[in-house]
Amino acid sequence: MSLSLKDAVLCSVFAVALPVGQMLFKMAAIANARLNGPIILRLLKNLPLMSAFAWYGITALFWFYVLTRVPLSTAYAFSMVGSALVPIMAWALFKESLNGQMAVGFVIILVGLVIVARARPA
Questions:
Q1: pLDDT tens, 94-108?
Q2: Cα angle at 51 between 45 and 53, to 5 degrees?
Q3: pLDDT higher at 21 or 122
Q4: 72-101 exposure pattern, b = at least 16 Cβ within 10 A, e = fewer
Q5: DSSP H helical segments within 1-122, as ranges?
Q6: What is the rounded distance in angstroms from the CA atom of residue 62 to the CA atom of residue 59?
Q7: Residues 70-122 pLDDT 10s
Q8: Between 58 and 78, whose confidence is greater?
Q9: CA neighbor of 102 nearest in space, from 116, 93, 89, 118
């Protein structure tokens, strides 16, 4: 029995949620450079950082829900796609560089995800 459509969608949403959190942390790092004062005050005034923490809290609860439905080995394969999306989102939002090796790596991750998602449990 392969992954149901609902479970594949849940895993995919989680996979996209991870890089969104990373983008919030990058925004927080940029905002931190513009803030003055002691580090504790800068952290407390850094809205993107607070947003990133909140996002990861919500994402952790969502991950818990996903794991009640999907085997960890399968769900985690989807999270690897999220890791591959980070460079693409960084390029789109922050104009960070990409190269051909990253593209090849991303394709390999996608092929691996398809293999894992179609696997039958033992």
A1: 999 989 998 898 888
A2: 100
A3: 21
A4: eebbbbbbbbbebbbbebbeeeeeeeeeee
A5: 5-34, 39-45, 47-69, 72-94, 100-118
A6: 5
A7: 999 888 888 888 888 898 899 999 999 989 998 898 888 888 878 877 776 65
A8: 58
A9: 89
75: three-class secondary structure by DSSP: helix
- Give CA separation, 47 vs 17, 27, 51, in Å: 18, 9, 6
DSSP classification of residue 39: H
The length of the chain, given as a count of residues: 122
CB neighbours of residue 55 within 10 Å: 19
**Domain extents in the chain:** 5-118
Question: Which pLDDT band, with edges at 50, 70 and 90, does 1 fall under?
Answer: very low
